[in-house]
Amino acid sequence: TLFRSMNPSPLSNCPAEGRPQLRHAAWTPPEWLVEVAPDDDGFIAEMVEAFRTSTETSLQQMRIALAASDVPRLRSEAHKTKGGASQIGVGALAEVCQSLEDASSLTPVSLLAELLDRCQELFDQAGRAMTAYSSRKLAVDDSGRLWSEGTRAS
């Protein structure tokens, strides 16, 4: 899973600067996605864009919920984000979302804010890794001509 080597749990008292960071973020589409669209980079790009768009919206909604101390709404958005992150192969984000989902109305707002900030960090890292993957997909076919987005030059 993406970012698995990183300690995704911000539940410790470890300050942000002391948390393990990615050295070389790498992302590849999960196996199920490659099986569904083995030669369709455009479809994979659509799935990545759908993940990015929905997660950006959910993160905004989580911030609004946090500001209103609406823990049930925060948990609901975290659940939605966890599912998308799991499906697209961003396991560390899914794990932090699980921590948010497990929160209760008694969980200190400062901890909820820290978890939400960690979600944003992981989402940003995943976005950079997905962009890097897309850049690497530009390849040279057997004849030496360039191709990308699932379309080979003829």
Characterise the protein shown here.
With 154 residues, the chain is an all-alpha fold. It is 58% helix and 3% strand. It has 5 helices and 2 strands, in the order αααααββ. It has helices spanning 31-36, 41-67, 71-88, 91-101, 109-136; strands at 139-140, 146-147. Strands 1-2 form a two-stranded antiparallel ribbon. Helix 2 runs antiparallel to helix 3 and helix 2 (41-67) runs antiparallel to helix 5 (109-136). The radius of gyration is 18 Å and the shape is elongated. The model is unreliable at 1-16, 18-24 and 139-154 (pLDDT under 50).
- Class from helix and strand fractions: mainly alpha
Largest sheet: 2 strands, antiparallel
Count every beta strand, where a strand is a DSSP E run of 2 or more residues: 2
How many helices? 5
Helix percent band: 55-70%
C-alpha geometry: elongated
- SSE order, one letter for each helix or strand: HHHHHEE
What share of the residues does DSSP label as strand, in percent? Answer: under 5%
Terminal-residue CA separation? 35 Å
Strand order in space, largest sheet: 1-2
Model regions low in confidence, pLDDT < 50 over at least 5 residues: 1-16, 18-24, 139-154
What is the gyration radius calculated from CA atoms? 18 Å
Q: If you average the pLDDT, what whole number results?
A: 79
